[in-house]
Amino acid sequence: QVQLLESGGGLVQAGGSLRLSCAASERTFNNYNMGWFRQAPGKEREFVGAMTWTGGRIDYADSVKGRFTISRDNANTVYLQMNSLKPEDTAVYYCAAGQRYSLPSYRPHDYNTWGQGTQVTVSS
Description:
mainly beta, 7-stranded mixed sheet, globular
């Protein structure tokens, strides 16, 4: 089973940028759809964005559309570039690997492997 490790979180001022990385223990592109989720204290896990295994389709939550971008390299790492960060983006961010659907899924239960999470804190 693939293992995922997120990195790149930290403290940033509102309006700033961060890039999160999700390194997989094996090549993910032909095997998994990849998703990013986040969870703020006291709230449910929330969809951020996801990419199909082909890379041909990427969807984002309305709350991050135009500010966040998902990409991947040629090996086993998926990225979440976050620009124009807002205090409400503060959360633990998780990457996840799931079944190879033709469309990205926004549902956590469609993903069966999760990373440990990385904290993102945006100060006002």
